[in-house]
Amino acid sequence: MIREDPMGTLEKFLSLAEAEPNSEQVSVYVLLKAQLENGQCILVLDDRGWSTSENWSRAEPAAIRETTLTVVGPGEPAPGASRAQAFRDYWKCIRSLLAAQGIHLSIEKLMALEHEVRFGPRLQRLLTGPGH
Asked: Which superkingdom (predicted)?
């Protein structure tokens, strides 16, 4: 845990993955949150997710978890930029979003935090329902 932010101790990042309602094929949206030691969560990103043509009966929890971490992480570099620059830009953005909410940490400390993935109730039901 890292104790530098005035709102409390920033404990970890938490990605909440949930199945899109009424989707017969894999379609997931993800919220990236920063979780404080007291359990309070601060929304960081709410514009992430993905869809495939795969039916839910074939979806694997490990693949959903891995893809969740990918879609909330650094994107592909802009034309002419390196992967290293895209990675650094991503963490600068995360640092800025958190600073706007009163949490001030270095990029290095943010990168060192645990990143947990949790599945929402709809997603859990789809991954444990018939066919799994």
From this structure: Bacteria
In the numeric block, which tokens belong to residue 26? 């894999």
Question: With contact defined as beta carbons under 8 Å apart, do 54 and 33 qualify?
Answer: no
pLDDT of residue 129: 74
Q: For residues 64 and 29, what is the distance between their CA atoms, to the nearest angstrom?
A: 11
Number of Cα atoms under 13 Å in the Cβ half of residue 76: 3
> Residue ranges of the domains in the chain?
10-123
Name the 3-class secondary structure at 98.
Answer: helix
Among residues 106, 128, 97, 127, which one has the least CA distance to residue 34?
97
Among 13, 20, 72, which residue's Cα sits nearest to residue 46? 72
